[in-house]
Task: inverse folding
């Protein structure tokens, strides 16, 4: 290790590969903050894997095709978070029939399921993101990632800018657990790398980065105090002190208006809020930067500033994209047939 920049690089290296993690199946109702996620999901999955129930499944899903991420809900497919009934192996689990699930419950389930799809920006995309956003910030302040997954963005934020604190909130328990494990590993690597430093370094030395000269060695040394992870629903997260709120919101399209409403009413004036893929249309959020797809990241990034005085009433959701339902049905049936053939 020649310099503190090498220490930082070794810490950042610990954050690689999260997008490929093995997804853990959800095995218990109530382990999930979403009520009945498992029972409703298994009712759907049982129709998905039973050809005699494909017509019923199509009929129930069709009115909600506009909120499905992809063609069929990701959770019920083989890579999804729902176990098969055999994998569940719980004799006390009471299976629901799809006919016992109301349309309202079903729509909410589809939205929740879509929001759990996992993805991460690459390190290069995050580098581009912070290079674009940090010049808009003053040192200090509080970074928040809503839906923080395995913690890559929270930890990258702490290594990229002198935020006073960086916190993430994640709803899926195993992801929260993995974020904490990765955090501990990163701290260990950071400590070992500091111990191997050849040249002496002082807390007030600058860790020189293209977008800030304010990140000091002491910020890296204080990394454990500056970083935290919580398990829970983003809608319960306190953003009242935030200076930058990050959302990898590509799968949050059907409730982006709810997030915008929370930001406009709960984030402090001047706070920056960034979203991916979906715009936030709200009078309390002013667009300050649009980073089109393929400039910073594979998708569009929007950066807003919290402006004006609320409280604002909740706005209706803007009509979402409605797929061609005949085409949707053809693709959905193809997926169902392929899944049943592979069992
Ligand atoms: C696309 S991933 C992004 C992870 C992380 N922010 C990143 O960019 O590397 C979105 C994450 O949000 C989580 N999530 C979805 N809905 C949530 C909610 N209501 N509250 C907290 N986390 C949520 C998902 O479980 C998932 O881990």
Result:
């Amino acid at each position: 290790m020649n310099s503190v920049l090498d220490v930082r690089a070794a810490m950042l290296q610990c954050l690689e590969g999260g997008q490929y993690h093995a997804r853990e199946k959800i095995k218990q109702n109530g382990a999930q903050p979403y009520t009945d996620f498992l029972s409703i999901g298994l009712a759907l999955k049982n129709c998905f894997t039973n050809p005699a129930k494909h017509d019923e499944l199509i009929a129930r899903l069709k009115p909600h095709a506009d909120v499905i991420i992809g063609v069929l809900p990701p959770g019920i497919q083989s890579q999804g978070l729902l176990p098969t009934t055999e994998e569940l192996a719980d004799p006390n689990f009471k299976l629901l029939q799809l006919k016992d699930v109301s349309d309202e419950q079903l729509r909410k389930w589809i939205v929740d399921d879509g929001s759990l799809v996992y993805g991460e920006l690459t390190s290069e995309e995050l580098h581009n993101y912070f290079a674009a956003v940090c010049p808009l910030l003053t040192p200090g302040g509080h970074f928040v990632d809503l839906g923080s997954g395995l913690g890559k963005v929270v930890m990258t934020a702490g290594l990229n800018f002198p935020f006073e604190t960086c916190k993430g909130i994640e709803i899926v328990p195993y992801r929260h657990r993995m974020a904490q494990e990765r955090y501990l590993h990163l701290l260990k690597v950071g400590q070992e790398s500091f111990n191997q430093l050849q040249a002496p370094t002082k807390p007030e030395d600058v860790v020189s980065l293209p977008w800030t000269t304010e990140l000091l060695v002491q910020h890296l040394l204080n990394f454990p105090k500056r970083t935290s992870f919580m398990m829970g629903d983003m809608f319960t997260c306190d953003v009242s002190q935030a200076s930058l709120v990050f959302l990898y919101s590509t799968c949050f399209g059907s409730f982006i208006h709810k997030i915008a409403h929370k930001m406009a009413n709960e984030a402090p004036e001047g706070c920056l809020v960034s979203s991916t893929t979906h715009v936030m249309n709200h009078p309390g959020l002013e667009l300050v930067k649009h980073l089109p797809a393929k400039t910073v990241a594979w998708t569009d990034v929007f950066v807003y500033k919290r402006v004006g005085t609320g409280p604002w009433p909740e706005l209706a959701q803007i009509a979402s994209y409605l797929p061609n339902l005949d085409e949707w049905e053809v693709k959905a049936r193809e997926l169902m047939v392929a899944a049943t053939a592979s069992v």
In short: The pocket of S-adenosylmethionine is lined by residues 115-116, 118-121, 145, 147-149, 152-153, 169-172, 175, 233-234, 248, 251 (CB under 6 Å). DSSP finds twelve helices and seven strands in the chain.
